[in-house]
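Hi all, long-time lurker, first post. I run a small reading group and we've been trying to get comfortable going from sequence to structure in the token notation. Rather than ask abstract questions, I figured I'd post a concrete chain and ask someone more experienced to write out its structure so we can walk through it together at our next meeting. Sequence below, copied exactly:
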Amino acid sequence: MLRRSFLALPAVASALAATGERPEPDALYRNIMNDGGIQKKGEDFCWHAAYNLRHFLHGYRAWQDTAWLDTGVRYYEFLVNHLETGPDGYQGWIGPYEYDHSVWCDVHVGDAVLFNGLVEFAEAVLADAKLRAKYGVYANKYVDLARKHLFEKWDVRGTWHEDGPYGAYRSWNRYGNPSDFKNWTVRNDITESGLALPFNKQDDIAAVALKLYRITGEERFRDRATRIFAYQKSRLELLDDYYCWNYWEPYGQADLDLPAHKCRHWVGVHPERPYQEGEVANMVEAYHTGVVFDATDIRRILKTNLKVMWNGSFDEPAFHNSNFQLPGTNKTQTAGVLWPALADFDDIVRKLYAGQLAKAKGIDRAIEKAYFENCTSKRPATLARQKLRGRPAVFEFPFSSCPGIMLAAALPASFSIKDGTILTSETLIKGAIEIAQYSSDGKQKLAVIHEANQQWYTFQHWTPSAPGNYRIRWSFEGGGYREAPVSCKA
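-- Answer (accepted) --
Happy to help. Here is the structure in token form:
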């Protein structure tokens, strides 16, 4: 499974451009077409195709030359022409399933990473009368495709699930034989079928929803993004005024293997791949749009990257993983990188990013260097929201610090008194844990639900004695606790 950070791996090998040199749009297009990954199908095709997708728009913005958009449309149409029609009439980039190449399907994240770039182009075009006159037919086409073949498709397929203020997508469980686009069957035996998607994939879909909201003004897209980011924000770990968060967490009971007393997938910060770089970029997109995150959240994310992860050197910068300071973690993990999206807010990030761009070579680096110098650096580094539409709608959550607990959630958070919920937690180290019911404001302890000497998972079924809104508090030996609001209906 191939993923890469913009700065972590080399660009396409051929036709390198020296630092400061202005490349031609056709050179970028030729390089993309020479990438062997672009000859693949399915999710692998989408990841490779997405690597350079934004560079056309950034080239236009850096040099104000519409030749970049002309060539971009050529590439965008290449991508759209690779859409295949699935068994239910919806389109996607169908190909080998990432975790089992014996079957074919389309996947949420493949759709998201490509529609993200296409809709970003559409947003730029539709906001400018001159660009709209020339490229509007393409922009509207990409908006319509994203509406139908990302959001409508996966809703109709039953993969979107809401829980109180939260929402998340689950992977589909229907697959076909290789090159079969018609006769797909339910295959719950295929790896990761029906599981809630990891945060990076949820966020990529939410980012498309943000752009569609800004383009169309339709509240349903804002609501979709809000629920996804609220889910993620509710799972952030507050630690000494900085955030850490896992790559993947259970969203509901379908993600638990209760007889085996474990999750159906691993939980933790990714040890090797810098997924958090992309997640932070999408959180920044949400912040700028006025969705879920506030200035305190941005400051805490900045502190994670600059105070916890960075070694403090401008000459030889290096980055630990974001969970570097947590107990029981591997200190040699290699997913730590600079999070360049934070350059909107901070001059230190800008200096580090400028240093990385100055050392890098390649057409994509030349474009991003020019975009950074001619666009990003022209704006002051402030917490001003750049894409705000309407009033900001911040999602408030009762954060508290507890380094030992890496997961704490009620599955579901909103439930009936007949069904109850499962209180789920995981600790990094062994120690005594108390799970208790508190009043909705967290001020009054109502009942102790469970006590144990815990390491790894605890799954505790719980039903309150009366309907209402409460907080569940997990208190861990050595100090600290985490909380989750719950709502129980009659």
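A couple of things your group might point at:
The two ends are 45 Å apart (CA to CA).
Residues 25-394 form a domain with the Glycosyltransferase fold (CATH 1.50.10).
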